[in-house]
Design goal:
Elements lengths: L5 E2 L5 H5 L2 E2 L6 H17 L4 H18 L2 H20 L4 H21 L1 H7 L12 H18 L9 H4 L8 H9 L3 H18 L1 H8 L2 H6 L8 H10 L3 H4 L3 H18 L1
Antiparallel strand pairs: 1-2
Helix pairs in contact: 2-3, 2-4, 3-4, 4-11, 7-9, 10-11
Length: 266
């Protein structure tokens, strides 16, 4: 895997910020989507834990350079949930609860003691991209999308509304669906929730990986298209249960055998 970062040489906020573009000069947020989606694919492929950790480290550094914060947050969520599920799932319930509590407390302590570093990492106080900018202007876009929905509540303004009227789209999947499809998007959301519940009952690991997409859906400008993260999101969400269950029984049997071997050697 080779990653190339090309400095952005243009005027305006990006030049002041010193952001990097992704491969071939593409948008850094697109690079964030691709790297996050690639990490989810790694997890779905069930590679060994060391390779997962190495991939996470490489991608996290790349995302921090790209300043793709939604992807960085989603990557952290995906990595944490995946390691939690895959590495301690076979512990006794009491040990799982105790370990979860300890890890949670350590995260809280780390956050309290390193607020300034976390703020710098996610650019929370940045003049151009910090909290005071309304999520880099997204709050205004969200408000506009909400008003578009109120003006067209039943069927929405249509898929071509933003492009036809040269209006910046809302950079939020949920408000995007609401504004372009109106209340008709209710059927899509219900289908997504229904399939999410089905995945939870079939493959809990896959369900946790789906949860890590949430920050991307809130801050990125994708609804229904073939860009990396919505494509993988909907592919996984609507996979047949038989495909979701592939390999689960064998992994469970392997883990049981592994515990039996350890018990005998002890």
């Amino acid at each position: 895997l080779q990653l190339n970062f090309i400095p952005l040489n243009t005027s305006g906020v990006w030049d002041v910020n010193g952001r990097y573009t992704f491969i071939f000069g593409t948008h850094p947020n697109l690079g964030g989507e691709i790297l996050f989606t690639g990490f989810i694919a790694f997890c779905i492929a069930r590679l060994n834990a060391r390779l997962i950790v190495a991939t996470f480290t490489l991608y996290f550094i790349a995302l921090s350079l790209l300043e793709s914060r939604a992807a960085m947050l989603s990557l952290l969520v995906a990595f944490s949930l995946y390691i939690y599920r895959e590495q301690i799932r076979w512990f006794a319930p009491a040990y799982r609860i105790a370990l979860t509590f300890i890890v949670a407390m350590l995260f809280v302590l780390f956050g309290v003691l390193n607020m300034e570093r976390i703020s710098d990492l996610f650019l929370l106080q940045n003049e151009y991209r910090g909290i005071g900018t309304g999520f880099v202007g997204r709050s205004g876009l969200w408000e506009n999308a909400w008003h578009v929905f109120l003006d067209n509540p039943l069927f929405g303004a249509g898929f071509g509304y933003y492009k036809t009227n040269s209006i910046i789209s809302p950079h939020n999947m949920w408000l995007g669906m609401l504004s372009i499809m109106g209340l008709m998007c209710f059927f899509i959301v219900v289908s997504m929730l229904k399939n999410g519940w089905r995945i939870y009952n079939t493959n809990a690991t896959m369900f946790l990986l789906l949860l890590s997409f949430i920050p991307m859906t809130i801050f990125n400008d994708r609804v229904l298209n073939l860009n990396p993260y919505p494509f993988l999101l909907f592919i996984v969400l609507f996979l047949p249960s038989r495909a979701l269950a592939v390999g689960i029984q064998g992994r469970q049997l392997s883990a049981v055998r592994h515990r039996g071997i350890r018990a005998k050697t002890a």
